[in-house]
Amino acid sequence: MNSILTTALGLAEQGLPVLPLRADKRPFGNCRTCDDLACGGRPNMRVPGPCVCPWPCHGWAAATTDPTLIASPFWGRAWRQAGAVAYCPGGAGVTVVDLNNTEAIDWARATLPPTTTVETTRGEHWIYSGIVRSVNAVRPGVDIKSLMSYARWIGHGTGTLADVPAAVHELVKVKPAVRPTPRAVTVPAPAGGGACPHRSPVYLERGIAMAEQRISTATSGVHAAVYRTFLAVLSAHGRCSCLTEAHIGRLFTAAQAKGETPRHCTDAWANASAALGM
Q1: Mean per-residue pLDDT for 90-94?
Q2: Close Cβ partners of 120 (under 8 Å, ≥ 6 residues apart)
Q3: Quick one: pLDDT band at residue 278, thresholds 50, 70, 90?
Q4: Choice among 11-25, 139-153, 192-206 with the minimum mean pLDDT
Q5: pTM of whole model > 0.85?
Q6: Is 215 helix (H, G, I), strand (E, B) or coil?
Q7: Which end of the chain is more exposed for a tag (fewer CB within 10 A), N or C?
C-alpha cells in the first residue's frame, strides 16, 4: 500500500471525504459517462460520494470516507498514480479560506479571527468549523472552499478550529461582479519547429476562440478548466510555429477575467507544457 493511499485511509477514518489528485493537483478526469454530471450523480449533489459510476469522476463529488471504496480495485489505479490527496471541506463540515499570497494573508490577519492554519506552497489555508457555498476570487488572492469543492490535504496545521466568521459569510453571499483587471503577462510561445499540420490560419483562430469560450463559460473548477484548456491548445498547436504570444495573451486574459491571477495562469501554462514534454 503506497503512502498516499495510507494517508487517504487515515483521513477518511477521521471523517474527511478524500479523493486522489494527479501530480499537477487536478482530480482524476471525468469519464464520458459522468462528463458535466450527465449521469446525475447522487440525489443530493451537495454531499460528496460516489455516483452510479464507480470511478472517481467528479472531483469533489467523488470524495468518500468509505475505506472499502477507497481501497477497491476501481480506485486502485488512481491512487497508484496520485501525486496528492484532496478532501471535500464541506463534506467534512469545514470551510477553507484559501489565501494565495502575502497580501491575502495580511488581510486575513487583520480581518478574520484566528483558527487552524496550514501553510501552502503559495500562502495559507485558514480552516473554520461550519459550511458555506464555495466561491473563487471573493477578493484578490482569496478563494472560499467548502460545499461542492475540494482542497489539497497538506497537514493538520496549528491553532484551534474556530467557527466560520461573519466576514466569510458576507464574502460568499454574492459572487463579486467586478474582477481584477486582466494584466498583460508575457509568456514565450513554444519554439515549435515542426511542420505545421494546419491547412489554414482559420483552424488556429477557431481553436483559440473555442478555448476562450471554454474558459469564460466555466461555472466551477475554474483552475482545472484553465489548465485543461491550456493543455488542449498546446497539444494541438504547441509543436509548430503557428502559436504566438498574442494567442497566449488572449487565453491568459480570458482566464484572468474568470478570477485567475497572472501567476496561476503562468503556472498552469508551465504545467501543461511540462505534461506534454515541451
Answers
A1: 91
A2: 98, 152, 154
A3: low
A4: 192-206
A5: no
A6: helix
A7: N
Nearest to 185 by CA among 261, 133, 243: 261
Q: Which residue has the cell 507544457?
A: 273
Element at 3 (helix H, strand E):
helix 3-13
Phi-psi map region of 248: left, alpha, beta (phi>0 left; psi -120 to 50 alpha):
alpha
Q: Is 177 left (phi over 0), alpha (psi -120 to 50) or beta?
A: alpha
DSSP sequence for 60-108 = GGG-B--HHHHTSHHHHHHHHH-SEEEE-TGGGTEEEEEE-SHHHHHHH
CA nearest neighbour of 17 among 52, 53, 56? 56
Q: What is the mean pLDDT of the chain?
A: 81
Q: pLDDT grade, residue 264 (50/70/90)?
A: confident
Nearest alpha carbon to residue 168 among 94, 88, 70, 272 = 94
The whole-angstrom separation of Cα 63 and Cα 18 is: 5
